[in-house]
Amino acid sequence: MIVVGVNSDYGIGRGVAKLTGSAYRNFQNKVFPDGESYIRLDANVKGEDVLLVQGMESQPDKRFVEMLMAVDAAFEAGAANVYGLIPYLAYARQDRVFSDGEPVSARAVLRALYDSGMSKIAVIEPHKEQELSYFKGKSVCVNALESVAAKAVAETGSSMLIAPDSGSWGRVNSIAKRLGLKSDYIEKNRSRVDGSLSMVKGLKNAEGKVLILDDMISTGGTVAQASREAIAAGASSVNVAAVHLLLVGNAKEKIKDAGVTKVFGSNTILDSECEIIDVSGEAAKAVSTFID
Length: 292
Ligand code: R5P
Description:
The protein contains eight helices and 15 strands. By secondary structure, it is α/β, with parallel strands linked by helices. 48% of the residues are buried.
């Protein structure tokens, strides 16, 4: 197998190549004056199985189109099979119709990848594991939340994990049990009209150092609200860990203003002001199941 970074793989492609004993190559990337992406495969992949690695965080539409073009380029260059490793899958949160007339965007994206000819796919912490069933080939969910949590707990000495919404509570509670920590959750409600958050269930007691754990941070509203709640409930310090640090707009300021000491994330997205944990090992394990 040859691992090929398309445009946005932040070192995970190299890590996976090393751990699976594969070669690592890149695409060349340019942007045409009108904004279209240009990519060119810089490798001989004739007769090879190719693993394309492409995260879809910033400029998700471009990253998605580049991935579709990369599949085409790999087959054009004679690849035997084309697989995908997606560090961050965009559009995953629209995994159902919330209001009439909306698409199931996760389904549209995963169907298009399969229809492009990609036969196997590994996705690091998709919003919900079940949505990978929209991809009609083999799909593997790469769980990275626990290793991010374990490293953040070891570094901060946290004694309690907090899930910032009820959707993540089951996983956070299981991780807390395995790490021998206390845990609790907050329940939030997000307005479908303006995205504003309101609290449905707060915390009774949050003694000591707490770690808020979530799959991703986008605008920072969810973890900022959780941090304020934890401090009000008695936490002596609050740190935050998530797999995907999108941190859009003024998310970092919002989180800091809410009393958070440190933000931990994974190398599915890089941010020099945060503590980044390498999850190539988890991705390599999943990708190893692709190799016959
Ligand atoms: C929601 O279901 C997710 O797990 C995250 O809690 C959410 O996407 C975070 O968004 P934001 O940072 O914009 O509040």
